[in-house]
Design a protein that fits this description.
Elements lengths: L1 E6 L2 E4 L4 E9 L6 E7 L6 E7 L5 E3 L7 E6 L4 E6 L8 E8 L11 E2 L3 E6 L1
């Protein structure tokens, strides 16, 4: 199967930046799409950004468009999320996720990382 390990979360003030990383291992040839999905307390999981394994296709939620950038380095089997101009409403646990077919919702992903906390203070 596929294993995902995230790193890079932390606490920053509003306007600051963080970069999240997610390294995949195992049967990575099975991956079609990867995504960063966040969940704030009491809220549903929300796909923040999504990228195809070959890097050709990307998606951003309206709430992060223009502030976050998703990328993938296939040589390292690693996906990144560069987060700039962070806002308090970006506070959540951020999960790395992967799927073998085109996903429709945040709950369609098969493989998940352990999650990393991002906290943005005002």
């Amino acid at each position: 199967q596929v294993q995902l390990v995230e790193s890079g979360g932390g606490a920053v003030q509003a306007g600051g930046s963080l970069r999240l990383s997610c390294t995949a291992s195992g049967r990575t040839f099975m991956i079609y799409y990867m995504a960063w999905i966040r969940q704030a307390p009491g809220k549903e999981r929300d796909v923040v950004a999504r990228i195809s394994w070959d890097g050709d296709s990307t998606y951003y939620s309206d709430s992060v468009k223009g502030r976050f950038t998703i990328s993938i380095d296939n040589a390292k089997d690693t996906m990144y999320l560069q987060m700039n101009n962070l806002k308090p409403e970006d506070t959540a646990i951020y999960y790395c996720a992967a799927v073998k077919q085109r996903p429709i919702t945040a709950y369609d992903y098969t493989y998940w990382g352990q999650g990393t906390q991002v906290t943005v203070s005002s």
